[in-house]
Structures are given as C-alpha cells and as structure tokens.
Amino acid sequence: MSVKIELGKRLKEVRRAAGYTQKQVAEKLFMTQQQYSRFENGIFELNYDQLVFLCNLFDVSSDFLLGLEHY
Questions:
Q1: Nearest residue to 39 (alpha-carbon basis) of 13, 8, 14
Q2: For residue 57, how far is the Cα from the chain centroid?
Q3: Can you give the pTM of this predicted structure?
C-alpha cells in the first residue's frame, strides 16, 4: 500500500477518534475542507509542517501516521 494511502487512512481514523470534522481540521491548517480531504484520500502529500502539526493535534507519532508503527 502506498504511503499516501496509508497516511490518509490513518488521518481519517485519528481525526474521527478525536471528534473533529474535516472542515475543523482544515480550518486549523488554513485550507478548505476540499483541500484537506485530498490528504485523507491519498491524492495530495502533506509537507513537514503539516505533518508535525497534525501529529501534535491528534497526539500521535509521525511513525504511526506514516504506517511505520501500530497505534
């Protein structure tokens, strides 16, 4: 499975577990919901700053989001 697909799957999982909507997370990243949904769907790649921000927001490691370890 590609890293983008795995990242998107895990982003969706932790976002839902944290009780956020895509729109709420998108606003925190200063983007539209449509732009953020492309991350969760494995279409776009996160940059380093976005990855770090989301790790902190969801209190998970980058290894977990990238599929390198289990939750």
A1: 8
A2: 10
A3: 0.90
Q: Identify the band that residue 20 occupies on the pLDDT scale cut at 50, 70 and 90.
A: very high
State the CB neighbour count (10 A cutoff) for residue 2. 9
| H-helix segments, the chain | 3-18, 22-28, 33-40, 48-58, 62-65
Residue 35 · residue 47 · CB < 8 Å? no
The CATH code of the domain that includes 43 is: 1.10.260.40
How far is the C-alpha of 22 from the C-alpha of 45, rounded, in Å? Answer: 16
Least Cα distance to 30 among 53, 4, 56, 14 occurs for: 53
Containing structural domain, residue 25: 3-65
Q: How many domains does the chain have?
A: 1
Residue 70 lies in a domain: no
